[in-house]
Design a protein that fits this description.
Radius of gyration: 21 Å
Helix content: 10-25%
Distance between the termini: 54 Å
Order of helices and strands: EEEEEEHHEHEHEEHEHEEEE
Strand order of the largest sheet: 9-8-7-10-11-15-12
Bound molecules: S-adenosyl-L-homocysteine
Shape: globular
Number of helices: 6
Number of strands: 15
Largest sheet: 7 strands, mixed
CATH architecture of the largest domain: 3-Layer(aba) Sandwich
CATH topology of the largest domain: Rossmann fold
CATH class of the largest domain: Alpha Beta
């Protein structure tokens, strides 16, 4: 089960800053600045094994995580960072079997993570207005083996949501407050609303709309992730960090808006 087979995507790890996502195929070589690697030599090795390049440098063959696919994806848009995706997953309640509407698809980094966690019976309906982004996102989803769990609809989500009785709605677009009325109607009672926005102005408008629509448990957070440099005698926070990505607003639908 843990063996590398033809067609697998493998993460070749050299060090923390240098990893390569490659597709293993018979007869293929991968060129790095440390020489080339004969990818056939990975076939039937166990994940976690080392492989040497033509110049004798060792790379470790790892099974890629969803975060690796996100960072190595073909990128046409900004993506939601794994640190933020992690919070979205935990606090949205999304899990196996969930039916989720997401917008906009963009590069599909968030879509991949959602699809990974709703498997095997859940589904993601992802809305995107721009056709060229849909094509790229589909490629990224196919590469990660997740395309079967996602339907991408070319539609402006601020004009309405087709699906009903949803577990969750997750937004990453410029005007999330315009989606709030449709989100209310499309969610099941208790369903979750999540919105990622870079600016406070967007958060204020979104929270006001949520409060007008009988959403409860409205909460906004920001996640700062500080990496540590870990070396004996020199262990301390790294000097540079990503100072800001966005704010994440969560809410739950309470029933009875029209009663
Ligand atoms: N979360 C994505 C990135 C989304 S970028 C990721 O992690 O990869 C924002 C996307 O929203 C863009 O592709 C943009 O075209 C799309 N978008 C903006 N407004 C939209 C709308 N009203 N309906 C659907 N998609 C929209």
């Amino acid at each position: 089960m843990n063996k590398i087979v033809e067609g697998d995507n493998v993460l070749l790890y050299l060090d923390r800053k240098r990893t390569y996502l490659v597709k293993v195929e018979e007869g293929k070589t991968f060129h790095t600045h440390k020489g080339f690697i004969d990818l056939s030599s990975l076939l039937s090795k166990e994940y976690g094994s080392g492989v040497r390049s033509s110049t004798g440098v060792e790379f470790i063959a790892l099974k890629p995580f969803i975060a690796d696919y996100a960072f190595k994806s073909l990128r046409k848009t900004q993506i939601i960072y794994p640190k933020d995706i992690a919070l979205i997953l935990m606090f949205s309640g999304v899990g196996p079997g969930s039916r989720v509407v997401e917008a906009g698809t963009g590069t599909g980094a968030l879509t991949s993570a959602l699809a990974f966690y709703v498997r095997p019976n859940g589904h993601i309906y992802s809305y995107e207005i721009r056709e060229e982004f849909i094509k790229t996102a589909l490629k990224n989803l196919q590469r990660a083996g997740l395309a079967d769990y996602v339907e991408i609809e070319q539609k402006d989500i601020t004009t309405g949501i087709n699906e009903e009785n949803l577990d969750s709605i997750v937004l990453d677009l410029a005007t999330p407050w315009l989606v709030v009325p449709y989100a209310y109607d499309s969610l099941m009672g208790g369903g979750s609303f999540v919105s990622f926005s870079p600016t406070i102005d967007q958060v204020v408008k979104t929270v006001e709309a949520l409060e007008e629509h009988r959403f409860v448990a409205v909460e906004t957070v920001e996640c700062l992730m500080r990496r540590m440099q870990t070396e004996r005698g020199r262990t301390r926070p790294e000097t540079l960090m990503t100072g800001h990505t966005g704010y994440i607003t969560f809410a739950r639908k309470a029933l009875g808006k029209d009663s």
